[in-house]
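Give me structure tokens for this 219-residue protein.
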Amino acid sequence: MERPFSIIDYYRQRAPEYEQIYYRDIPQKRKELAEEAARLESLAAGGTVLELACGTGYWTEVISRSAKLIVASDISSEMIEEARKKDYRCPVHFVRTDLYRAAFAAGSFDLLTMGFWFSHEPKQNYAEFHQLVAGLVKPDGLIWMIDNNPPAEGPRMESVGTDSHGNNYKKRYLDSGKEFVILKNYFGPEELRGIFEPRFAVRKLIFNECYWSVVLGPK
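Here you go.
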């Protein structure tokens, strides 16, 4: 499976500072995140949840407010180490694994969640990605994702080019100033529908100023 250039190393090194994205003093972002947290808490109520790319556990904590059980996975041991520091309100089992190599039983979960990963998924992988996530939830299970809309571009955020598949690449910087080039795609609402509707029923698509989210179900 083709993985984005340098992105795993980027997130391993960024783990201690990653949650700055959630606590920036930008009222619109804080508002949208709070609204999404309320929606996710409702979706997870009473269910068994598989969280892919759990990162530092920000959304894991939200899910734990109402879920019965969470299996939270990430390829980065550094991210999981940060996630383990949080307090959760239901049992949470952390698993370090690549999402394409995870040995989760098919059809085991009521809800699958993924926060801020889909924009890093290479476009040429979408068919396999859809098959993977659809196979992990129960026949009536749901899939929830959230990701970024394009930020106001500045000299530190602008695109550095695209590849032959149409994937966009951007520079990202750690607090130390260390520079990475990572795959980061952005989408419009109709583009998102075009990506998901061939495989899923789009139960809800929220497209706000800062973030988009989607709830997918079986067709």
